[in-house]
Structures are given as structure tokens and as C-alpha cells.
Write a structure and sequence with these properties.
It is built from 16 helices and 22 strands. With 481 residues, it is of the alpha/beta class. A 7-stranded mixed β-sheet has the order 14-15-16-13-12-18-19, sandwiched between helices. A 6-stranded mixed β-sheet has the order 9-8-7-10-11-21, with helices on both faces. Helix 10 links the parallel strand 12 and strand 13. The radius of gyration is 23 Å and the shape is globular. The termini are far apart. The structure holds nicotinamide-adenine-dinucleotide. The site of nicotinamide-adenine-dinucleotide has 30 residues, from helix 8, strand 10 and helix 9.
Length: 481
């Protein structure tokens, strides 16, 4: 597991053991599986310099050839899916059953999609009587990507693919909890033909991220992280008028009406709270259930949750793994204590599991009310809050009563109600009778405190390029005097 070196800069692994030690811990055992070092100032300088020097030439490539590099990288990732998934499992603790289908594959989709778009990014011709103008879609320059720990491979590709397709270069800083996977993306992009310096990876915690964002060579920052970090990074980018995409947290509503298919709604609630042990930003952690099906819903939910196969995430039979770290486990435990002390009814789980690593049971609270801490704050762990509701108008108002707005969903058999309710939910991604599917073809991102900008789909191009207007005068210039 030990990478060749901590960083990947200018087309090669780079080490500087002077940087702070960052042990890499396998969350399912608590064992140290690798050691990397945080980037020193010299490493940060080398990475930014490499990205800056490589950018103009990369932007001058034929777009179709830039796209071909990305598509080749996608093919290499697919061919190595098992190996990359196993690494993702070691980095994050997520079950191999999940990582085999959700991580490297999603990275490959992004590279393939934006590889295909690269040659389509054109401007337009604007007739102006005799004069005319044209627009060009031009890259921003050096983009800094900063990742969270829940999807280290996917986040590197969701940021890197559109950035590179548009002719930018990138310095990517993974989360300090999960430093391994992005290095593989850098290796593969080089192997696929990306010139040295086009995609660089440097390790470190928040301070390294801050230095990258503040450097004048950085034109854009894209952060995936928590809302408090997002506010800091967005402010820092704004101070130098830099472009910014902020993919932040959520406290999303999953609304289940009486007429919903109960088993499907139960499946959605399980996926929306327990996939990746609940460490998913778009999770539907406030599950509003209409009173008519509440009892049957809770009964089936509890029965099915008891069937989770909890264990070593490297075993493909396991479908529920550990939290990423001891710290995250403690945070989740403290929220569970608050749930109990504030009067929510624990119907499932609630305990740390007695085994090595950072395991906690999938946990469900019923009788949750809107004012409880577990209904207001993002927990980022496997803790589901079930709230009762009576009417459509009531549930819409309650669902929107949050500063966050990443996602949301409605389960109903009534087609018109489904559309009416999702239209009323203030969130960037909403589903009808589905949850948490985020294919590359559709935009993803938050409203309100959940962020700005969009990843994926054609929408991401807007956030990794800018429009330049060229006005062409066809007649002599006249002046007043
Ligand atoms: P975090 O905010 O603690 O850290 C995110 C990243 O920001 C890390 O790489 C960290 O080192 C870096 N960072 C911290 N302070 C910084 C600073 N001042 N300047 C620059 N970089 C800094 O988040 P986390 O705990 O790693 O991840 C969990 C959070 O991420 C949750 O809130 C979750 O909802 C969110 N998330 C959002 C999405 C999305 O797409 N919307 C996806 C995954 C996770």
C-alpha cells in the first residue's frame, strides 16, 4: 500500500520527508498501512510551478487530443477497477462490494464524459450589422482541487476531468485521511498521455490547502468538504477574485407519502443513510414519513437494517463497514447520545461495535422532531432520523427549514404530487422515487449553505472555463472630435 512517494509532481513521484508525518490508517483494523508526509513549502512550490508551466501548452493541444488522453485514462481505470477498488477500500474503509461499483468506475465515467466533451467546447459568432463578434471558451489556468475523505478517487476525477478537458491544469490535495487514491489517478493520467505537470497531487491538511488557494498562480479552487471549511475557502478565493466551486454538506429530506411503495421507500432510506456507513454528503438523513404508513415503514426498516452484513470491508459479502476514523466515530457517538438525551426513540443500533477498527451500528431514531440536534446538524455517519408528518404543505415547509440545500427526494405513487413536491424543495439535486444516484450526465451541487457551482454534466464546463469576447470592427472608427 505504501506509495512510491507522498506527492506526484511534474509527472513523477516526489518525496520530502521534512513534511509532517501522516500515517494512513485502515479504518477496519486501526492498523497503519502506509505513511506519507505533508507537503513542505518546497513541494507546494514545485507543484504550483509545474501546473503553471504546463498549462499554456496543454491548452494549445488540439481539444480532441486532450479528450483522447482522458478517455484513455478512463479505459485504464476500468481495466484496473479491482485493484483501484481494493485501494479505495483500504483508504476509506468502505466495503469492497461498494467500491467495486461506485468509485473507480465513477472516476472513469467522468474522464470518459469530459474526454468526449473536450472537442465540443466552442464559442459563437455574433452578427452586429457590419461589425461582428465572436466568443471563445478559454481555460481559467491552474485549478486547485481539495477533496473530502469519503470518495477520494471519485472526487479527484470529478474535479480533474472537467478541469483538464477545458485546458486547465490541476494541483489536487486529497483529504489528509485518505491520501492514497488520488496518486493513482495522477499515475494513470500520465500513462494515458497527459504531459507532466498537468495533474499533480500534494498531501497535507488544511494548512496546505490554504497555501494552495492563496497562491496568486491559482485561478480557481474546487473544494469538496464541510460547510464551515467551505466558508473559509470561499472567502479566501474571493479575496483574490478567484473562481470557486464549493461542494459542501447537507441535511437532506427524504419525504415518503402514504401511497409510496413501502419496500422501495425502505430501500431508499437504507441507501440514503447507511451506504458508505452514512458518509455521503447528499444523504437523506431527515426521513419524513406520512402518518398512515409510519408503523409499517418503521417495522420493515428495522427488520431489514438488522440484516446488514457488518464486517471486514475487504470481504465482498460485507455491506456495512467502519467509519473513516476514530475521530469521526466519536463525533457520531456524541450525536447518538444527543439523540437519546433530547428524547428521540432509538429503534435500531446506537452502539459502537466491539471489534478492532471504527465500527458503529447502523442507527435509527424514530419520533424525531425538527428542533432536535440530530435533525438539524449534519452527522456524516449512519444515523437516520425518522420524523412524522401529516400534510404536503407542512412537510415542504419543514423540509426547507434548514440552511443547507444539497439534495432531497419524494416517494409517492402520485405523479403530479411527486413533481410538485420536488419543485418546492430548495436543493440542488432532487429525486422522485429514487435516491442518491448521481451519474456524470447530470449536474450535481448544492443550493443555500451547501455550496456554489455544479460538478458533472455540461454544467461543470461553466465552472472550469470562461468566455472571452472578441469584437471585430469592420469600418473606420468615428469619434466625436
Ligand atoms: P473538511 O471540511 O474537514 O475537509 C475537506 C478538505 O478541506 C480536506 O482536504 C481538508 O484538508 C481541507 N481543508 C480544511 N481546512 C481548509 C482550509 N482552511 N483551506 C483549504 N483546505 C482546507 O471535510 P471532511 O470532513 O473531509 O469531509 C466531510 C464533509 O464533506 C461533509 O460535510 C460532507 O457533506 C462534505 N462532502 C460534500 C460533498 C459534495 O459533493 N457536496 C461530497 C463529499 C463530502
Amino acid at each position: 500500500m505504501q506509495p512510491v512517494a507522498s506527492h506526484f509532481v511534474n509527472g513523477a513521484y516526489l518525496e520530502d520527508a521534512g513534511g509532517a508525518r501522516m500515517p494512513v490508517i485502515f479504518p477496519a483494523t486501526g492498523e497503519e498501512i502506509a505513511l506519507v508526509h505533508a507537503a513542505t513549502d518546497a513541494v507546494i512550490e514545485a507543484a504550483l510551478n509545474a501546473a503553471f508551466e504546463a498549462q499554456k501548452d496543454w491548452a494549445d493541444w488540439m481539444p480532441v487530443e486532450r479528450g483522447r488522453v482522458l478517455r484513455r485514462a478512463a479505459d485504464l481505470i476500468r481495466a484496473r477497477n479491482r485493484e483501484l477498488s481494493a485501494l479505495e477500500t483500504l483508504d476509506t474503509g468502505k466495503p469492497l462490494q461498494e467500491t467495486l461499483v461506485a468509485d473507480a468506475t465513477s472516476a472513469a465515467d467522468a474522464l470518459e464524459y469530459f474526454g468526449g466533451l473536450a472537442a465540443t467546447l466552442t464559442g459563437e459568432h455574433v452578427p452586429l450589422g457590419g461589425d461582428w463578434a465572436y466568443t471563445m471558451r478559454v481555460p481559467l489556468g491552474v485549478c486547485v482541487g481539495i477533496g473530502a475523505w469519503n470518495y477520494p478517487t471519485q472526487i479527484a476525477a470529478w474535479k480533474g476531468a472537467p478541469a483538464l478537458a477545458c485546458g486547465n491544469t490541476m494541483v489536487f490535495k486529497p483529504s489528509e485521511q485518505t491520501p492514497l487514491c488520488a496518486l493513482k489517478i495522477a499515475e494513470i493520467l500520465l500513462e494515458a498521455g497527459a504531459p507532466p505537470g498537468v495533474f499533480n497531487v500534494v498531501q497535507g491538511a488544511g494548512a496546505v490547502g490554504e497555501t494552495l488557494v492563496e497562491d496568486p498562480r491559482t485561478a480557481k479552487v474546487s473544494l469538496t468538504g464541510s460547510a464551515p471549511t467551505g466558508k473559509k475557502v470561499y472567502a479566501s478565493a474571493a479575496a483574490q477574485m478567484k473562481h470557486a466551486t464549493m461542494e459542501l454538506g447537507g441535511k437532506s429530506p427524504l419525504i415518503i407519502f402514504d401511497d409510496a411503495d413501502v419496500d422501495s421507500a425502505v430501500s431508499a432510506a437504507i441507501n440514503a443513510n447507511f451506504y458508505a456507513s452514512g458518509q455521503v454528503c447528499s444523504n437523506g438523513t431527515r426521513v419524513f414519513v406520512q402518518s398512515g404508513i409510519r408503523d409499517v415503514f418503521l417495522e420493515r426498516l428495522a427488520a431489514r437494517t438488522a440484516n446488514a452484513t457488518i464486517g471486514d470491508p475487504r470481504d465482498e459479502a460485507t455491506n456495512f463497514g467502519p467509519m473513516v476514523s476514530e475521530d469521526q466515530l466519536s463525533i457520531v457517538c456524541s450525536y447518538i447520545e444527543k439523540g437519546v438525551s433530547e428524547g428521540a426513540r432509538l429503534i435500531c443500533g446506537g452502539n459502537r461495535i466491539e471489534r478492532p477498527g471504527y465500527f458503529i451500528e447502523p442507527t435509527i431514531f424514530a419520533d424525531v422532531t425538527d428542533d432536535m440536534t440530530i435533525a438539524r446538524e449534519e452527522i456524516f455517519g449512519p444515523v437516520m432520523a425518522v420524523l412524522d408528518f401529516a400534510t404536503e404543505a407542512e412537510v415542504i415547509a419543514r423540509a426547507n427549514d434548514t440552511d443547507l440545500g444539497l439534495s432531497g427526494a419524494v416517494f409517492t405513487a402520485d405523479l403530479t404530487r411527486g413533481h410538485r413536491v420536488v419543485h418546492a424543495i430548495d436543493a440542488g439535486s432532487v429525486w422522485i422515487n429514487q435516491y442518491n444516484l448521481t451519474p456524470v450526465e447530470v449536474p450535481f451541487g448544492g443550493m443555500k449553505g451547501s455550496g456554489v457551482g455544479r460538478e458533472n454534466a455540461k454544467a461543470a464546463i461553466e465552472h472550469y472555463s470562461q468566455i472571452k469576447t472578441v469584437y471585430v470592427g469592420m469600418s473606420p472608427v468615428e469619434a466625436a472630435f
